[in-house]
Design brief:
The chain has about 250 residues and is of the alpha/beta class. The chain has one domain (about 5-240): Queuine tRNA-ribosyltransferase-like (TIM Barrel), CATH 3.20.20.105. It has helices at about 45-65, 80-90, 100-105, 110-120, 140-145, 155-160, 185-205, 210-220, 225-235, 235-240, and strands at about 5-10, 15-20, 20-25, 25-30, 70-75, 95-100, 130, 150, 165, 170. Strand 7, helix 5 and strand 8 (about 150) form a beta-alpha-beta unit. The longest helix is centred in the last third of the chain and has 24 residues, at about 185-205.
């Protein structure tokens, strides 16, 4: 059964909304989602492979529409294939979407911004987007661009890599032993707690109409983060201003 998404307010393209009476932006746990089967692939693949994966993803999503409420937007690095995938998934009846290859997109700021903004422009207003494998320092700018949620699985992913996620930095505990001999389950729990803290931060800033301030503050944490903001400002100012409150 498709979940209703209700928009409550905007701060720039970022949105506070509700899914199942839970406020977004929020953390989504895979165990609570009914994700349609899909045909995934690496980010940097030949177009023919990406086209096949989109076709198979659409077929599987259509076959499972009665049992699932979330679909995955495939298409690898090809923005037009991603948009085609989104539109056909909406036509099938889905309104909740996971953006595949999130980890690869974070290392390609230009492609990340182009993809997220393009999807947001083409999507129906009642569609909501979930990002996978987000680093915590990226969550404010992803929200600012219009992402509505983040998969909790990223906490498990980074704990497997022995990486501690904090609001401003990802620490490889092999190089920076802030905590020595930490068990993986303890590291995963800490990563989830820090993820929840960033969500709280985002909500407070959005309610105060100061999300942009938080985005600028976090932009200096990594070269990819600052590049993402610069590209967003340079190439998509009209998109940013469409929902920005003027004083």
């Amino acid at each position: 059964m498709i979940k209703k998404f209700e928009i409550k307010s905007h701060d720039g393209p970022g949105r506070i909304g509700k899914v199942d009476d839970n406020l977004t932006p929020r953390i989504f746990f895979k165990k609570d989602l009914k994700i349609a089967p899909n045909e995934g692939s690496a980010y940097n693949v030949d177009r023919e492979i990406a086209e096949f994966n989109v076709k198979e993803t659409l077929r599987l999503a259509d076959e499972n529409i009665d049992a699932c409420d979330i679909a995955v937007i495939q298409g690898s690095k090809y923005v037009d294939l991603r948009i085609e995938c989104l539109k056909q998934l909406e036509d099938i009846g889905y309104n909740g979407f996971i953006i595949a290859n999130g980890d690869a997109l974070l290392t390609n700021p230009k492609e990340l911004v182009e993809l997220v903004v393009s999807l947001k422009k083409e999507a129906k207003k009642n569609s909501y987007f979930i990002f996978s494998f987000a680093e915590l320092s990226f969550m404010p700018i992803l929200t600012y661009m219009g992402i509505d949620g983040f998969l909790a699985d990223s906490a498990n992913y980074y704990s497997h890599l022995n990486v501690l996620q904090t609001p401003t930095k990802a620490y490889d505990l092999n190089e920076y032993p802030i905590y020595e001999n930490m068990e993986q389950e303890d590291l995963e729990r800490m990563n989830i707690e820090n993820m929840e803290f960033v969500i709280r931060e985002i909500h407070v800033h959005m309610k105060n109409r100061s999300l942009r301030n938080l985005v600028e503050e976090r932009s200096g944490t990594t070269p990819q983060n600052i590049s993402t903001l610069k590209i967003l400002d340079r190439n998509y100012m009209d998109y940013l201003l469409e929902y920005t409150q003027l004083f």
